[in-house]
User: Which sequence fits this backbone?
């Protein structure tokens, strides 16, 4: 499976631009070292940082990058002994803001998991961000990330990077609010961890549906 993954990655690099190679390598290193190695990322207070951005921004960026027809969003070109990195910063900025809700909500799934597993993680010498900032502040952060995803989603809409129909994502805020309240009341892996996943799915599925429409 890993060999197939690398072969498909090289095919994408060949069909687009060499700049996709270092991006793919970085994402692969993060994926491998997240749970493997002498000091996995998941055992440090970095799990949220190294899950949300690669999965939220990285996947969306690569998907748009390989399908962008007008020109290359980002390109790495070589000529003799020199190289040049060129990019469309405005398009990259737009992709960043469009993907921010996914970045925050995916990070929130990891955060919710770490909140629920705090006691067990300490026993297993896993010192996540919850251990360092405390459970109460972690729950506050969980709330901020959920509601922040909806606030920041206004930016690409107001900038004209997304159509106004995307405002129809906002009714899911009522559902997300309900899930947040359930998690605030009890942080149990078997009962309320799923609320973070439900909030993510509600936002993302409605957003995808609106893109199709």
Assistant:
């Amino acid at each position: 499976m890993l060999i197939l993954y690398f072969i498909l990655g090289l095919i994408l690099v060949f069909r687009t631009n060499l700049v996709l190679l270092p991006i793919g390598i970085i994402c692969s290193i993060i994926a491998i070292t997240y749970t493997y190695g002498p000091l996995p990322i998941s055992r440090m207070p970095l799990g949220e940082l190294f899950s949300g951005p690669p999965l939220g921004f990285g996947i969306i960026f690569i998907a748009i990058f390989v399908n962008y027809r007008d020109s290359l969003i980002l390109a790495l070109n070589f000529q003799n002994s020199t190289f040049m990195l060129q990019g469309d910063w405005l398009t990259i900025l737009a992709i960043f803001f469009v993907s921010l809700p996914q970045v925050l909500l995916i990070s929130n799934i990891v955060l919710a998991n770490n909140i629920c597993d705090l006691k067990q993680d300490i026993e297993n010498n896993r010192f996540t961000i919850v251990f360092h900032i405390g459970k109460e502040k972690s729950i506050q952060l969980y709330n901020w990330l959920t509601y922040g995803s909806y606030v920041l989603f206004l930016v690409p809409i107001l900038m004209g990077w997304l159509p106004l129909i995307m405002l129809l994502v906002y009714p899911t805020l009522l559902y997300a609010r309900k899930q947040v309240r359930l998690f605030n009341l009890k942080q149990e892996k078997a009962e309320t961890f799923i609320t973070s996943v439900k909030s993510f799915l509600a936002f993302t599925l409605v957003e995808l549906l609106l893109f199709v429409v």
